[in-house]
Amino acid sequence: MDPATLTLSAMAQQLHAGSLQPTTLVDACLARVAARDERLHCMTQVFADEARVRARALEADTPGGPLWGIPWVAKDILATRLGRTTCGSRMLEHFRSPYDATVVQRLEEAGAILLGKSNMDEFGMGSSTENSAFGDSRNPWDPERVPGGSSGGSAAAVAADYCGFALGTDTGGSIRQPAAFCGVVGLKPTYGRVSRYGQVAFASSLDQIGPITKCVEDAALVLQAVAGHDPRDSTSLREAVPQWGTELESVPAAPAAVRVGVPRNFVQHGVEAAVRADFAHVLDTLRAAGASIVDVEIPHARYAIAAYYIIATAEASSNLARYDGVRYTRREDASDLGELYARTRTLGFGREVKRRILLGTFVLSSGYYDAYYLRAQKVRTLLRGDFDAAFAKCDILAMPTSPTPPFRLGERTQDPLQMYLSDVFTVPANLAGLPAASIPTAVVDGLPLGVQIYAPALEESRLLHAAAWLQGLLGFERLTHRGRA
Amino acid sequence: MQISQDLIGRLEALAALRLDAQERESLCADLGRILEYVRQLEQLHADDVDPTVHVTPAQQPLRRDATRGSMRREDVQRNAPDARDGFYRVPRFIAPGEES
Q1: A224 within domain boundaries
Q2: Cis bond leading into A195, ω under 30°?
């Protein structure tokens, strides 16, 4: 069996047993990249030589923890000293970070092997990876369809067995939606759980880094390795990091009376038939296994997309002000400083980024601030109240990850609003700061679908247990391997 | 919502972007449609609701007042399109004689 197709947990088992060597595994992963990436274009850079050198160095040593010797892929929004950190943008095409992001450093210390960096929507702005300055990524299940976004390259790389796992970032669903589209697991942790030092900022009150993996147990292992306070990110929480990986080794076959909340009014509208039928099947499966399904209301969720696109663009317009042609590699020369700024930004940013900067500039400008930005922040307060009330009646919430299956390339590029609406079920978690995960459910007409679970803040343990349980009930693992073969 | 040429011109100036006529026309239409959608927030009765600035409790972490290592200037400035002697170079923006 090709070791690249194994889950991270299975790779780790064989590496520790000595039946698989890091060099063999790295070669197997690189062979998958070589065979498939010309078509799928998940990667912006591949560090083949460096990964082989590192694998040999590890091999000379004794095996360490569960990520020892595991090849992984970083979304190209994460700063790495190795290679460039492009953010999918012409603006940073030649940018070389002088330091590693905290997550990159922690994975390095855990013995993981950085294989390369993955393609993404420019600065994380998009839901299809079609906004990358370096070309579209394709969905491994059907290359005529998008892998989702903005972490589309990371999700597709995991689905195409390039690596043991990948990291993505999630500002409004950018880990979970591509995970659903590619038939893999994606987890957005509680806001503040993972240090963002070295993550290029998009919307600072929403951004969070998280794992994309082939199964729930793998997500637990990766999250455990990267989570925890970091003095270099003052928004990172001073909370102890549970042993999520070990915890999952003892998932009860049938946890006692799990209450699954379903916001029915919210999930009724704009959901395609295939997704609706699949979600009903998931609820039936849960019910049959002993869970009770509870109707809950999240009344302000219908304002989430509007609030999100105000807050995210406002913060982006501020965060992206630093790209001025002076410090970050790209410059369009001009005799006047103002002209230099404007020319650099106009030619360096892609269309969607400019659209969002202008929108963010508008909602923050005098005369409009109260009507837009302040109002959107009030929606966040109301939404958090809704979730508190809902979690008083249930343990977890369930809803589809995306209202549609993976769509075709080009299908939504002319209609930004339609593209934004594909995030309808994912943005509420970012606005409220909650942990949420997407897990694969089924393959319908050759395309994977996903279901999403929300848990209260800091309840990643509950989230992972529920996800692992549901994964077992749905038996998706067999399907993925057939589909990805 | 209609985005006037005047307004888009003002936003471009604030954001240091310069759109050509075609790009301006299509972005005006996009922004108009997005703001039309966002207008649904007007239905919200939220006068007595506090805004959420940050979802985690605000904290002002303290640390020891001790010197620490930092990145080397030359490593950071390696990414500058034009740096010399530790400075970033830009076109002159103070006219001769205005320096003091």
Answers
A1: yes
A2: no
Rg of chain A over Cα atoms, rounded to whole angstroms, equals 21
Question: Which token pair is A327?
Answer: 């410090």
- Which sequence positions of A are flagged as catalytic? 75, 150, 174
Question: Contact, A443 vs A402, CB < 8 A?
Answer: no
Nearest to B11 among A351, A362, A372 (CB): A362
Closest Cβ–Cβ partner in B27, B49, B72 for A378: B49
CA distances from A275 to A321, A376, A423 (A): 39, 29, 14
- Tell me, yes or no, whether A308 and A365 share the same domain: yes
The count of residues in chain B is: 100
SS3 A52: helix
How far apart are alpha carbons B36 and B25 in whole angstroms?
A: 17
CA distance A18 to A343: 56
Best probe of the A interface among B4, B5, B17, by most A CBs < 10 A, is B17
Q: Say whether both A458 and A372 belong to one domain.
A: no
Mind listing the pLDDT tens digit for each residue in A35-91? 999 999 999 999 999 999 999 999 999 888 999 999 999 999 999 999 999 999 999
Q: Is residue A244 part of a domain?
A: no
**Range with top average pLDDT, A113-122, A252-261, B59-68:** A113-122
Evaluate whether A123 touches A85 at the Cβ level (below 8 Å).
Answer: no
DSSP lists the bridge partners of residue A212 as A166, A186
Q: Is the same domain home to A191 and A60?
A: yes
Instruction: Tell whether ipTM is more than 0.90.
Output: yes
The CATH number of B5-43 is 1.10.20
Helix, strand or coil, per DSSP, at residue A141:
coil
My answer on whether A16 and A114 are in the same domain is yes
